[in-house]
Structure formats: structure tokens, C-alpha cells
Amino acid sequence: MNKQIFKINIEPQNSSVYGTLRLIADVDCETVKSVEPIIGYSHRGLEKTAETKTYLQYLPITNQIDFLSGFMCQEAFCSAVEKLCNIQVPQNAQYTRVLLMELNRISSHLFWLGEYLKNLGMSAFYSFKEREMILKIFDEITGQKMLFDLHTFGGIKKALSAKNLSDTEEFLAIFINKLDEYEKVLTDNPIFKSKTQKLGILSKNTALTYSITGANLRASGIKTDFRKANPYLSYAELDFDTPTETSGDCYSRYLIRMAEMRQSVKIAKQCVDYLKKDNQNYCAENINADTLPPEKGTAVSLVESSRGLICCTVISDGSEKPFRVKWRTGSFYSAQVLSELLKGRFISDITTIVGSLDILMSEADR
Hints:
Blueprint: E1 6-10, E2 22-28, E3 31-38, H1 46-49, H2 55-58, H3 70-85, H4 91-119, H5 128-142, E4 151-152, E5 155-156, H6 162-186, H7 190-196, H8 204-209, H9 215-218, H10 226-229, H11 250-277, E6 297-305, E7 308-316, E8 324-328, H12 330-336, H13 338-341, H14 350-356, H15 361-364
Antiparallel strand pairs: 1-2, 2-3, 4-5, 6-7, 7-8
Helix pairs in contact: 3-4, 4-5, 4-11, 4-14, 5-6, 6-11
């Protein structure tokens, strides 16, 4: 009997998370023979936009690169401009930036966890209560719950108040116990393990071939974290570990993100302790961000974000507007590796594997 290969389209359906990722799959009955990932359905031209804005005007737009990790995108752009202008960021501002980015990492991972559980047929809002606590802190600090804006060239726009720090301490104390609850429900859950173990295995060689970074890379056994390998801000002064797993499957990627949230809590506590003692001089002196003229040249910054490495390249011709801004983000590469991970799997496995990579299409479609 001759087998017939059918070509089916999976997504795009909506503009949220990876809903605008299109997969063209060749299937034989229920088995996926090949997959072609296609991006570009939510392209917003955020790189080209930089050429029409001043550096200060473009800064708030950068948090739209990854709307779930806006502080990290702002750090990447600020760091590149600060390198161009040879600006030294005060120690207080460095710790504040790290604190906000680690809280942002936790909120991003919690969003991923809730969405992933939904993909597996479980409660979609299991982790959203604690994420809302972080967003409330961000709202008090920046006046926004989504597109946060506190970074500025040479530091931050304002120092954190005593209430901001006490609210953060209260959240960290609550959240570390909530993490234990999450793991009690999920980590040894036989149904959850049966749906995620030995599925979507990303080998070391494949991960390196596709330039995978972040949690997806560390889940495949490669211990690379740019917060340690290439320390920036105050990360060199902080005590934290780099969790790794070796299986490279969906379950390992879950374990990595749970472990990363624990490390983020550890980092955030150290930052709060420092800021309670020293919360002055939060911006470099004599910086006029409105008319900041960068020197001619090229600067590259690297930030370990929630979905992998963010690389921001800024080219300046000495004018008030960037000559060129280029972003490199983790989701773009995670989407491409799906052609390897989905091959030979069942159609029902697609959402489980895609969800485990934590792909954000607004980050890939820049």
C-alpha cells in the first residue's frame, strides 16, 4: 500500500507568544516527516525604526523587542551606547538594573510556565498570581505593567524607594515557597513527566549548530551563562550558580527554568541588601541624555535574557540618530531548530515541543 504524505499548516492564528509562528509540516498519518518554520507575520521594523529616532527616543521602544523581558532589552541598548560614549554607570544603578532584570526573568519564566501548562491541558493561570505580584512592583516603580521604562544612559531615571525594596523583599519571601509548591505538583508528577520526558531532544551538537543560547542550551548540558562568562554590571560581585541538565528534552528545559528562578531569587536578595545600604548616585554625573552625541564607531553589548542571549549592535556616525541598530535574540534561533526537533514526532507532540523552547515571536520578528 502506498503511503500518502499530506502537507498541513500549523498556525499562525493569533498575535500572542508564538501564535504567529507558521509551521508547514509534511505528515504521514500522525507522524511528522518534515517541518519548515516560517517567521515574519508580526514584523514591526524595530531595527529600521532606530534610524529615524534619536537615541533617547528609541530607548523606550527597545522594550518592545521582547515585551516579556523589557528591562533586559533596555539594558542591551543602554550598554552599547554607554560603550560608545565611554560612560561609567554608578554602582547603585548597576545593582538596581540587575535587580529589575532578575525580577523580569522570574516574571517571564512564570508566564512561560502558565502558557506551557495550558499547552499540556492543565491550568493556564497556575503561576500568574505570583507574576502579578512582580508586575505590581514594576507598576509602582515605572508606572507600567508591561513596557517598563527605567533605564537611561549612565544609570537609571530614579532610585528605588524604601517601599519598592520592602515590597520586593516580601515578594521574594513568598515566591521561594511558591516555587516549592510548583515543583511538588509538577516535577515528580507522572502525567507531566510522561508528556515531556524523552521528547524534543536537543543534542549538544544540534544546539551549537543552530546557535541556541540560554536555558535551551543549558538544558542540553552546555554550561554557558554570559552573566558569568562575560560579566556585566555587578554580576561579577554576586553569588549565583548556573544550572544545567543533560537530557536536552522538554522536561530538562522545564527543570532549567525552575532552577533559574531560584537563582534569580538568590541574586535579587543580594541586590536588595546592597541597595538598602547604598541607594544614592543612581545616574552618572553630567549626562544630558536629550542631546547625547555618541562618538563615531561600533559597540556591541551582550545580555543573558530570559529566552537566550540578546546581542545589540549600535553603529554611530556621530549624529543625534543611530546609523544602524541590529538585534540578535534567542527566539529567532529556537524557531529554526524546530525543523530538527519535530521530525519523526506525532502531530500531538508539536505544541509540547514548541512550548518547551519558550519562543516569543515578537522577539524573532523584529
